[in-house]
Structures are given as structure tokens and as C-alpha cells.
Specification:
238 residues, alpha/beta, Rossmann fold, globular
Length: 238
């Protein structure tokens, strides 16, 4: 029967599409990287998505976040993403959690319920906790490393965390996960050296932490790569 996912089924087969339909994936962080991961999963026929992010869409998100438009500025990102997913696949069960994921909020989530976890958050503390919780539950997880201040979308690679190089965030993650006895972690990272931003943003001028520069074509590629890895792993073609 012809449906939204007929072209995908031509490549993966009916059995794989049924696996995707029955899968529940949690995406922690639905910004520049995570938003495109959500997009890929929704358009691949994943049947249930849990979206976790406490941020709201801002004007400066429009250059790179798929859920960010002038009409969504001010909305919770998880609500904007939920509406978009349901417009793509009305049968998808979407749960939106306007939560900042940290160890203090981790108990809100039962990791054993997920078929896959996507880590697209920014804080090292949160990322490490996600990895530890997923590992304890026996749930596959993939993590996004740094995508800010970069211009080369072709520099991204999928690798084990202990085989990464160049990326400062990956370096910190390697050190901290090794301390905790974590043997492996699938990540998407870039070997491109970070570029020093030029000029000053409004946030910088107000004395906030340094804000990284970003483009439409770098975080989106990282997010789509992650989405592809999740889909292929779920259907056994990874």
C-alpha cells in the first residue's frame, strides 16, 4: 500500500519499516543537531518519539534550527517539534518534555522504555549522565560532539569515542567516561578545528558566556547523520 514511507520501504523492506513503527526513541536536545535528528526519525516512520528540551525558539535559532521560523519564535522547542512531527506522521506518538536534562531531572525518564537514545545536549554533566543511564538500562545511545564554530559539513565522522581526535568536547568525554569505566560510545564528531568567531553578538555584549557561531549546513548534517545511524541500527543494517 502506498504511504508516506513507501520510498523508504523500497530500500529497507517491510519488516524493517515495522520495526521502525514499533520503536520508541528519545531525543535529548532538539536544537540545531537534535532538531534535524527528529526530522529524520519522523520521516523514517519511527512510531514514538520522546523530545526533551527546556529551551524556547529564539530569533538567533532561525539560521540553523529546522523548527525555528518567525512564527515559532518564543515557543517551547519541544512543542514546535511535536507539532512538526505530527504534521509529518499523524500516527507518531510524540511526548514533549520541557525539561533541562541533568542528573537532578534524570529520574523523570525510564531509559528501559527506549529502543534508542540520542544525546544532542550541550552540557558535559548531562551528556555523561545520559550515557551512564542508557548503559545501565542496556539501551543503545549515540552522542553528538561539538558542532559550533565550524564550517565544513564533510568533516563529520561516526566513531567510537575512544577513537576521536581534535574535538575538545570529545576529549573531555573520553577522559570522563574512562574514569567511569565506560568501554565504548558511538559518537558523531568533526575533526575540523574550531574557528574563532568574528565580531560580537548581542548575547556577548550583555556579558553572557561566549556564544559559538554556527551555520545552516553544519549542525544539520550532524543531526541527519545521527538520524541515519539510529534508523540503521534499529532495523539491523548498521
Amino acid at each position: 500500500m502506498i504511504n508516506e514511507f513507501s520510498r523508504t520501504e523500497l530500500l529497507l523492506g517491510a519488516e524493517a519499516m515495522e520495526k521502525l513503527k514499533k520503536a520508541r526513541v528519545a531525543v535529548f536536545g532538539v536544537g540545531g543537531v537534535g532538531g534535524y535528528t527528529v526530522e529524520a526519525l519522523a520521516r523514517s516512520g519511527v512510531g514514538a518519539l520522546d523530545l526533551i528540551d527546556n529551551d524556547r525558539v529564539s530569533l538567533t535559532n532561525i539560521n540553523r534550527q529546522i523548527i525555528a521560523t518567525h512564527s515559532t519564535v518564543g515557543e517551547l522547542k519541544v512543542e514546535a517539534a511535536k507539532r512538526r512531527v505530527r504534521d509529518i506522521n499523524p500516527r507518531c506518538e510524540v511526548r514533549a518534555y520541557p525539561t533541562l536534562y541533568m542528573p537532578e531531572t534524570a529520574d523523570e525518564f525510564d531509559f528501559s522504555r527506549y529502543d534508542y537514545v540520542v544525546d544532542a545536549i550541550d552540557t558535559v554533566t548531562g551528556k555523561i549522565d545520559l550515557v551512564m543511564r542508557a548503559e545501565a538500562a542496556g539501551t543503545p545511545i549515540i552522542s553528538s560532539m561539538g558542532a559550533g564554530n565550524k564550517l565544513d559539513p564533510t568533516a563529520f565522522e561516526v566513531a567510537d569515542i575512544y577513537k576521536t581526535s581534535v574535538c575538545p568536547l570529545a576529549r573531555v568525554m573520553r577522559r570522563e567516561l574512562k574514569k567511569r569505566g565506560v568501554k565504548k560510545l558511538k559518537v558523531v564528531y568533526s575533526k575540523e578545528e574550531a574557528i574563532t568567531p568574528v565580531g560580537e553578538t548581542e548575547e556577548d555584549a550583555q556579558g553572557r558566556r561566549s556564544i559559538p557561531g554556527s551555520t545552516a549546513f553544519v549542525p544539520s548534517v550532524a543531526g541527519l547523520i545521527i538520524g541515519g545511524e539510529v534508523v540503521r541500527d534499529i532495523v539491523g543494517k548498521g
